[in-house]
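Trying the structure run again after the queue cleared.
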Amino acid sequence: MRVLQSFPHKIGAARICTTAWHQAAGAAEAGADVLVMPGAVARPLPEGIDVQPTLARGRVRIPYKVLGRVRALKLHDRLVAQALPKLAGQIDIVHTWPMGARETLKTARRLGIPTVLERPNAHTRFAYETVRAECERLGVALPADHEHAYNAEVLRLEEEEYALADRLLCPSDFVRQTFLDEGFAPEHLARHLYGYDGHRFHPRSGPRPEGQALTVLFVGVAAVRKGVHFALEAWLKSPASQSGKLLIAGEFLPDYATRLADMLAHPSVEVLGHRTDVPELMRRSDALVLPSIEEGSALVCSEALASGCVPVVSDASGAVCEHGVNGLVHRVADVDTLQAHITSLHEDPALLDRLREACIRTAPDYTWTKAGARLVEVYAQVVADHSGHHAHPARQAA
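Done. Tokens:
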């Protein structure tokens, strides 16, 4: 399987840049011949992967801030599209990412090369509308340049990309459902996986100290979409807050922090800010709380599994855990159920131990190696379908 992965950002940096790095490494490990064309490289990829940055030559980079993010992504897209004709016959499939894919997808279609488009989040229209409604309910203003502030131009471009790709890669059933709800045909959507880095995330050695108070951890950008306000409400309603700790590892949007100031001031709540020691924090914590109102498939959930830190998450988190088996799942915004889940872990050490053991037992199913193998399977299926039908699947239901 010969694949071109086009990634318009700095591969190997944080968030989706980490995801793209592991996808390239995982696909290569699974036997694919991988050519990566990123905007720039923040972390070198493993040997054997051909890397051709579009916005960098050696140590010289075109600064994204100088160009502006949208212009930089469009320039990357244009450069990849220009390179594609010379690669025809040398690659079997093109894997693209949002906001930097339209021209590449058009060119690949003209050349008869099948394509997939990564969907690291829910349908953008759903994400915008869901976040806007919750911000209005809370009285929190998103900065105009925030990634989830409603942007009609971004939405228009992303919806064009959706229509041009042979398949949209959905990392969770939640993401897939948001596209089905928008009228997309099931055959336009392919389920794949995200994973965790086993070199960084692993359980602590030794049993949990008997009688230790419950420690619950939140990791991520502390924004409205992550539901930190639900976590705080549920925590403070639970008796766990009388002796335990809720740790928040992530930067807050200023207006959101102001809105939550009274709850954040509770002595059981510790705001840690941005942290680089997340693996250690997970090993020290009993549970990870993530009450997101919309998500792709949060990497922190699989990382928590690997760390023996029980996921306590919403059904919009895209989490890989199964309720009552290796995690606890509540409906979005259901603070009472979230409080009950936290309280059950506080009051029932045997439940906590059972869930923790199941996390550690099931975590190997969600490594980046497994995710890479699944991704290559999806590539092969898309290529086979393309060869068999010589046509795009239905884009959207009428």
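The chain has a mean pLDDT of 94. Worth checking whether this holds up in the mutant runs.
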